[in-house]
Amino acid sequence: MSSDKNSGQTIQEALAVVRQQIDGIDGTLLELLNRRAQCAREVGEIKARFGDDGFIYRPEREAQVLRRLQELNQGPLADETITRLFREVMSACLALEQPIGVAFLGPLGTFSESAAVKQFGHAARLLPQASIDDVFREVEAGHADYAVVPVENSTEGAIGRTLDLLLGTSLKICGEVVVRIHQNLLTRASDLGEIKQVLSHAQSLAQCHEWLNRNLPDVPRIPVASNAEAARRAAEDPSIAAIAGEAAAERYQLPHLASNIEDEPNNTTRFLVLGRFAAGVSGQDKTSLILSTPNRTGALQSLLSPLAQAGVSMTRLESRPARHALWEYVFFVDIEGHADAEPVKSALDKLAAEAAYLKVLGSYPIAVY
Predict the structure, then answer these.
(1) Among 11, 31, 93, 170, whose Cα sits 20 to 30 Å from the Cα of 135?
(2) Where does the record place the ACT domain (predicted)?
(3) In whole angstroms, what is the distance from residue 19 CA to residue 155 CA?
């Protein structure tokens, strides 16, 4: 039996002291979590008493809480860990009133599911859909409270279908989620030589192109509807390998034969959160717009000049063919700041006077990692 030479204390005795402290802390945490849940319930009761519109999820309030916690955090837990833990706490508290229904591009086990859970926690009611179109329709029809849709990937660029649907929807962007994309080779094969096919979504195959060239150059690469579908098939056939994320690996109980095989080490996908209500000012916000201008020399520079004059920073500019005319384009623009706060408010008033078309897609908190 080992012991501390200076104190004569055994390892079991030393551990018992620390474990007793942990038990006491766990009890306090349990009490505080239930007190927080009771406060969340009281918030719902107050809203109902004063005739609130029933909008129980406030993305701007959540962002403010998470930022404050990160400022208070002194470790050893990382800020990202604190954010994830408290999102789950908030998710569970909201579910006491009513679980939030979240539509996303399915099936279960995709990166879209990971984004939905990252934003809304595991207490949310997850509603996987067959297409991005169906994700939009589910919220527009009131069958889901929010949509989570991919809008751009750092390697592959913009998600065209999402941009097209933003043109016509009445939904508002009320949040954003940034997910680090780690691709893994999942299979029941014991080594690379046993693999006869590699399955994945076409975009994931493209993101791992060089790794596949080096390690599986002669194995056919077959695109399928989703990474989760690839994982499902790999779980049934050991000659198949799937390229997919951790969520698919867990759902289908597939071992990693290789991890983090994406060619770009900073491969990241940005998702938008869409709802029927606008988000309020959080203090660190973005606003997304759609603009169009007549096709003439210098038109875009002239159109965007109110932003520069107001000192509003533009973080993204994406062109997309317009639906109404050949060789005409609309521009998707992200700017810093909230549409209801200066200087963005004044700049948007000037933009509206200059633009042939202007649609404010929404203002929302900048993603909290």
Answers:
(1) 93
(2) 288-365
(3) 47
What's the CATH number of domain 99-181+268-275, 3.40.50.300, 3.90.1150.10, 3.30.420.40, 3.40.190.10?
A: 3.40.190.10
Q: Report the distance separating Cα 125 and Cα 142, nearest Å.
A: 14
First to last CA, the chain: 45
Asked whether 184 and 249 are in contact (CB, 8 A), the reply is yes
Could you tell me which residue, 12 or 147, shows the higher pLDDT?
147
Q: Name the residue type at position 278.
A: A
> In 3D, which of 54, 72, 69 has the Cα closest to residue 275?
54
Q: What single letter denotes the amino acid at residue 297? A: T
CB neighbour burial string for 128-138, b if at least 16 within 10 angstroms, e if fewer: bbeebeebbbb
Return d(Cα 48, Cα 130) in angstroms, integer: 35
Residues recorded for the chain: 369
Pairing of strands 197-200, 314-321: unpaired
With tokens 């997919």, the residue in question is 244
CATH of region 184-258: 3.40.190.10
Active site residues: 269, 271
Helix (H, G, I), strand (E, B), or coil: what is residue 92? helix
Alpha-carbon distance of 8 to 16, in angstroms, equals 15
**Cα–Cα distance between 261 and 209 in angstroms, integer?**
9
Please give the distance of CA 190 from its chain centroid, rounded to a whole number: 33
Collapsing DSSP states into helix, strand and coil, what is residue 258?
Answer: strand
Residue 215 CB neighbours (<10 A): 16
Closest by alpha carbon to 275, among 156, 111, 103? 103
